[in-house]
Model the fold of this input.
Amino acid sequence: MSCHESRAGSTLKARQKAIKIGIIGNPNVGKSVLFNKLTKGKAWVGNWPGVTVEKKVGKLTLDGISFELVDLPGIYGLTAYSQDELIARKFLLEGKPEIVIQVTNAINLERNLYLTIQLLEMGFKLVIALNMADLAEKEGVKIDVDGLRRELRTPIIPTIAVKNFGLNQLIETIKEQLDKPAPFFKIDYGPEIEEAIEKIRRLIDSPIRRLGLKIDPRWLAIRLLEDDNDIIQRLRDMGFEDIVSEARHIRDELQAQLNESVEVLIIEKRYEYLLNLSRKYVRRKTAEKSLTDLTDGLDKVLTHPILGLMVFASILYLLFKFSFDVASSLTEVIRVTFSQHIHDLVKNSLHPEFISSLFVDGVLNGVGTILIFIPNLLFLFIGISTLEDTGYMARVAFLSDRLMNRLGLSGRAMIPLLIGFGCNVPAVMSTRVLGSDRERRLSVFMIPFMSCSARLPIFLLLTLAFFRENQLIVILSMYFLGVFIAVLTALLFNNLFYRKQVAGYVMDMPPYLNPSIRNILAKSWERIRSFLMKAGTIILLMSVVIWVLSVTGPEGYIGPEALRDVELLSRSWIASFSRFLEPLFKPLNWDWRIIASLSFGFIAKEVVVSSLAVLYNVGVESLPTVLSDSLTPLAAYSLMTFALLYTPCMATVATMRNEVGLRYTLLMVLYQLLIAYTAAYLILSIGGMVI
Amino acid sequence: MKTVAGYGLIIGITYISSTLIFLIENMSGTRLLIPQLLPEDGGMAFYFITVGSLYGYAYFKSREKIFETVLLVASIMSIAIMLVQLLNSTLNLMITLTSNAWIIATYNLSRIEIILGLLSIPLLLRIRRDIYE
Done:
């Protein structure tokens, strides 16, 4: 051990509290692997204050020195546009980490460096773990580590986290850095902007010092020039209203002088610096001769007002074809495996009938319903991850920004809404990328009205029974009705709760890059796993609950025969419950069997059709005929409308609860029931007057 | 470059012609061409029009710098729909191993988007070379 190391070690040992270290990085760069390796799995999970996003904290003790490692959410920047970015920045500002480890992906280092320069601008002591160094080498990426280290004045350690390579060196570097000052880092934003930064910095400098805050005043000045709402609010809370006003005045003057958005100019300068950095220190075998030229050229096509929209609509079609057509054959395999092979196997091997029915009709039906979604979701996630990895999603947001602004949303909200046509669950989950809580809530309120693929069987059944001649038009009218109600909902809620606020934001347009298969698969798997964990458990549980409610009744135990005998089923709890609700639905002319089927639809919308078949005691193939005898075409259309608009499946509700909290979820569930009932009633009564 | 642009234009015209015939067939209710030479549905017809337009746009911009990137997007889109269809056919073939599965697979392989996708591969390679080298 060198003399320097020994001195550093003794100073460190003298510290009483654990040394706090933040681990930060873009999504899917191996951050969690590195965190787990460093903490040797000794971590605990909690929530970040005020939000339901998971927080992982771990301990590491080395030579008597305690470190507390905090795994931050995967982010691309610190602009605080999304919740994840906001959480990470809050930790950096309030958690006061002594060191920040930025885990970077050596394969796509250019994309990671934006976060690096933001962290350096904030004035942090940074240690960069250049992860996946082996894969980068295999892919012909050569990084001049020494050059980059000198340029950024920051230690860079090549690592392969999965193989423990470089981790000891990383720890040693962290220990060395603790007693060193933070490096001086500065991007030259040009004379006019620099002058404005300096003016604001002078304003902030002494109040910040007086309060003993460890925030770089230059960084604060830049953020004020970028009109960062979060920082402005923080300064106001600290009683610096006068500084905020003065900074705003300086910014307005500068904007008038430059005749361009200061925020955009600052971002452009950062990217210019970044591109120079990449050109100087990153070399690729398939030389990306002019990444900027290519990106600029592609943007001219992909953000073109007409061609861009045409390409976007076409890519959407391709995505849906990939997710639903291609996945359908795999879905069929799972359906057959569950409904025939496993169903028969379990049925024949379990006795008595009660147990067999519990597993077959309850557990297996529940699990089967979930697993049937998997191929569609997997393919959808692969498609979306590919688009994300190429950098195309930012262009989609840009294209739809003007349209979405009218609803109080930004262009990025278009993505979750479109995903909603496939499945509402990943759509609600994908609202995490949106900027503010307001935007997230508005989008989550709109998503359930996007007719997901699970509602299609209901429309198909009813149109086959009542609108055979105009089947496609009637189904399309359902999709348009859903979009119409979603738009009305956004307008209503934005007016009611947020007083017509419009989401404005500046987008960072990442350069286009070849997608990495490894990244895509990892990201898709993570999303599928999350879906299975959160939605699967609830669906399974609810399936069992509904099974119990179907085989038992006010008179006691009826038996599994109730699921096949409508007479017995009418004595069950579920029938009693539906009969209890029957007067409420009297104006809609539905009997208890339709109400019960729609209740079953809460598990998953596909269940509505099979429930109708059980309750009417006929096969799915004869169901259209039976239904056409008991309903009028108008009543059927009103039923379709109700099925489109009422409470989404419980997997969606559970996901909504996770994303926006219980209060807003309950509000939404009630709102949807009210809208569905009103729309169904209006169709029936107005239609009755017209026809 | 003129040859490259002309080659792209021919592919683009084929996409648009196929879509126009599809639309005429649908509106008039008559059969003019075998189904595998036409888009499968309205969504694919729109896709064809987009790719066709991009190829056409590239031809008219062949003297400008944007030409290369328009052609790159067009050829990627052309190959993407081919790959999706190929994957779809392969999975169907593997799963429905019935006696006529091979006939269906061969039928699917002769679909227009697969032919035009294959014809776009040399174009993509050429454009990639021009862009990256």
